[in-house]
Amino acid sequence: MGDVKEDRDEEFGRFMAARWPRLLRTAFLLSGERHAAEDLAQSTLERVYTAWRRISTADDPDAYVRRVMINLHARRHRRRLKEFLAPKDDLGLVREEADRGDRITQAVDRDVLLRALAQLPARQRQAVVLRYWEDLTETQTAQAMGCSVGTVKSNTAKGIAKLRVAPVLADTVTRREQA
Description:
Elements: H1 2-31, H2 34-50, H3 52-55, H4 61-80, H5 103-118, H6 122-133, H7 138-145, H8 149-165, H9 167-178
Helix pairs in contact: 1-2, 1-4, 2-4, 4-7, 6-7, 6-8, 7-8
């Protein structure tokens, strides 16, 4: 019996290590703050660990983990009843792709985009983050958010429309076009 628990713990440890950077990035994009992102990612993995035996045999454990994260974030957001705060910094996040080009310009562009995302309502922000940062399909996003595909389409379209007219992003696009 002890060997089974050790095997399960080892399997969960491998799963956690492989997913941690992506979970942390998603949590950061949802919460807008590094420490809140770390708390959200850790809380998510705590919940997942308690049900790991069932989750590990599921068709898509990642979808389950995303769903847990979205639910935890939504509960925290409802409890606080306040808007997302603009991200303070994102130190310690692991990027999936190597940086290319001018690092200062990339940092400024990233900061501008994160501030614009922080202005979106919670559901629109979740839809945009899951669809475009996590590259999920509409169906996967709907499952993660616990809503219909139509709601995902609507929230994504509204979020993207708000981002397109966000003054802070318009300044960045204008600056890029002039360069």
